[in-house]
Write a structure and sequence with these properties.
The protein is α+β, with helices and mostly antiparallel strands and 590 residues long. The chain has 5 domains: 68 residues, no CATH class; 172 residues, Rossmann fold (3-Layer(aba) Sandwich); 99 residues, Elongation Factor Tu (Ef-tu), domain 3, CATH 2.40.30; 108 residues, Rossmann fold (3-Layer(aba) Sandwich), CATH 3.40.50.10050; 97 residues, Elongation Factor Tu (Ef-tu), domain 3 (Beta Barrel). The protein is built from 15 helices and 33 strands. The strands form 8 sheets. Strands 7-8-6-9-10-11 form a 6-stranded mixed beta sheet, sandwiched between helices. It has a 6-stranded antiparallel β-barrel with strand order 13-14-20-17-16-21. Helix 6 runs parallel beside helix 7. The longest helix is centred in the middle third of the chain and has 22 residues.
Length: 590
């Protein structure tokens, strides 16, 4: 009984993903996500769950959670307490959210007077961008641009968590789309005030009242209709009414009375991490309190480092960054996960110790969640019959995109084909990736990255398939097509001819020969056939011979007479119909 009880206790660290939790409990990850949804939380496969959520979800499945902490409590970074006198006003952090192609980046472009859209592959945002803008009135605002494509759920959730205000962009010539609803849910879950921007108002067919009506169905009434949500009709292209929208955002910010203490060690959130060829790991962070300076030892997730240089979003060097300022940091030892908290610490040694402990915990977590094949699993695969696995290695330019792509690919798994992502990391495709792919029969997927020349040569020698993409849905569609190619084909029957028996002749040592007329189609010598008598199939088999007069022929077409003999079957009568058919392979769809 003691053992039984122990097996229902899961020892975990707080930052466990939904996928890892599913593996530990031996439940499908979809059930975990469904449970979180029933609790009003939208989580993706790779999203980390906090302690409270883990406890509730495990309890639903009859498990108890025990949180494992390192022996030394120094893993907990003690943040300095702020007194009321130290707090100074800070700029608001505004997240721009909404459906793909509704004009989020065009709006931000106009506000920043810089062209971001031209640099986006396929015109869709695939990264979180962070920008500090000074408004015409001299006030400063930090903008976060989040992707609207359905794959980037986790990025939108993170954007909502770090923001003070959310601008929900809806195109007036379109409708309230699923990602718009999801963005509203994220913002409401994070308790963030919403401001609605109805874009593309200058396009023919724009009807913002239709949008207001659809929002009212979702219990969201804008101020024009007597509600308490601010809204503004704008055009991102011409800049119409954008100043009014900014006024409304600043009004919301004033109501929030945002303050932070700039005179302490910096803390904040990691927005994105990328590997730059010349500069190494570049981490985009949003400072939420304190001031980050060059030379500060920092800790983010399970990586530490020292700030070697700070750049603003335009690539200009800065010496320090205060509250609400997004900056790119050089000097991290590894790429932290987007969404991790970062802290500036007293000493680099302390930062490295904590980072090592966290890394060790994550390794343990990884080992504990590695699932070895069980007899049940072998049985399941045998029962399905043609079970296949597709191993993938995903490399990308930024951590958030890799997470979104991995999530989307894992969701393609079916009963018969399972997708395994055996490695995912930031950076170019290296020789070690090709060797790993060779050892595990994997395909390498590069998202906005290229293989090094050594890796390319090795891949050619090892015959490893490297697929490179710059648009997320291209990658998803191609992998889906590859999976459909892996499915065993289905066979469909196609009737090729109907032949009526007009006379029969019994010949010794040969059997019964039928004199026939081909009613439709073409009968061939190696067709499979059925004998149909009064609408009932009495025999299925194949032809022994097919003749026209005395000559053997390969095929006989409609309207011609022929003689045929059926292999191992002589019980044929005048009036029987011989049905010729063939099996055609049909490509299966997922």
């Amino acid at each position: 009984m003691e053992q039984e009880l122990q097996s229902r206790v899961l020892k975990v660290t707080e930052f466990v993903t939904a996928n890892e939790l599913a593996t530990m409990m031996d439940e499908p990850v979809t059930k975990i996500i469904a449970t979180c949804m029933s609790l009003g939380m939208f989580v993706s496969i790779n999203q980390r769950l906090d302690a409270e959520t883990l406890t509730i979800v495990a309890d639903e499945f009859g498990y108890e959670i025990q949180f494992v902490k390192p022996d030394d409590e120094s893993d907990i970074v003690i943040e300095e307490e702020d007194s009321e006198d130290d707090l100074l006003p800070r700029a608001p952090v505004v997240t721009i959210m909404g459906h793909v192609d509704h004009g989020k980046t065009s709006l931000l472009d106009y506000i920043r007077k810089a062209n971001v859209v031209a640099g986006e592959a396929g015109g869709i945002t695939q990264h979180i961008g962070a920008y500090m803008v000074t408004t015409p009135t001299g006030k400063q605002v930090t903008f976060l641009d989040t992707p609207g494509h359905e794959a980037f759920t986790a990025m939108r959730a993170r954007g909502a968590k770090v923001a003070d205000i959310a601008i929900i962009v809806v195109a007036a010539d379109d409708a309230v789309m699923p990602q718009t609803k999801e963005a509203i849910n994220h913002a409401q879950a994070a308790g963030v005030p919403l401001v609605f921007a109805f874009t593309k108002i200058d396009k023919p067919g724009a009807n913002s009242d239709k949008i207001r009506e659809q929002l009212s169905i979702m219990n969201i009434l804008v101020e024009d209709w007597g509600g308490n949500f601010q809204s503004q009709e704008i055009s991102g292209k011409s800049g119409l009414n954008v100043d009014l929208l900014l006024e409304k955002v600043l009004l919301e910010a004033e109501l929030l009375d945002l303050k932070a203490n700039p005179n302490k060690r910096a803390t904040g959130s990691v927005i994105e991490a990328t590997l730059d060829k010349g500069r190494g790991i570049v981490t985009t962070v949003l400072v939420q309190a304190g001031t980050l300076k060059i030379g500060d030892p920092i800790l983010a997730g399970s990586y530490s480092g020292r700030v070697k240089a700070l750049f603003n979003e335009r690539g200009q060097k800065v010496d320090k960054a205060g509250p609400s300022v997004p900056v790119q940091v050089l000097g991290m030892q590894g790429a932290p996960t987007a969404g991790d908290k970062f802290n500036a610490l007293e000493s680099e040694v302390e930062a490295r110790e904590i980072a090592n402990k966290r890394l060790q915990l994550m390794r343990e977590q990884g080992l504990r969640t590695q699932k070895h094949i069980t007899l049940d699993e072998i049985g399941r695969r045998l029962a399905i019959g043609n079970f296949k696995e597709l191993n993938l290695i995903v490399k990308g330019d930024v951590d958030g995109s890799i997470e979104a792509l991995s999530d989307s690919l894992l969701k393609l798994s079916t009963e018969e084909i399972q997708i395994n992502i055996i490695s995912k990391a930031v950076g170019q495709i290296s020789e070690s990736d090709v060797l790993l792919a060779s050892a595990s029969d994997a395909i390498i997927i590069g998202f906005q990255v290229r293989p090094s020349s050594g890796a390319r040569k090795l891949a050619e020698a090892e015959q490893i398939d490297i697929r490179l993409y710059s648009i997320i849905y291209d990658a998803i569609n191609e992998i889906k097509a590859a999976m459909e190619g892996m499915l065993a084909p289905e066979f469909e029957e196609k009737i090729t001819a109907n032949v009526e028996i007009r006379d029969t002749f019994k010949i010794t040592k040969v059997g019964t020969i039928a004199g026939c007329m081909v009613l439709d189609g073409t009968i061939t010598r190696n067709s499979k056939i059925r004998i149909v008598r009064d609408g009932v199939v009495i025999y299925t088999g194949e032809l022994a011979s097919l003749k026209r007069y005395k000559d053997d022929v390969k095929e006989v077409s409609r309207g011609y007479e022929c003689g045929l003999n059926i292999h191992n079957f002589n019980n044929i009568e005048v009036g029987d119909i011989v049905e010729a058919y063939e099996q055609v392979e049909v490509k299966r769809k997922l």
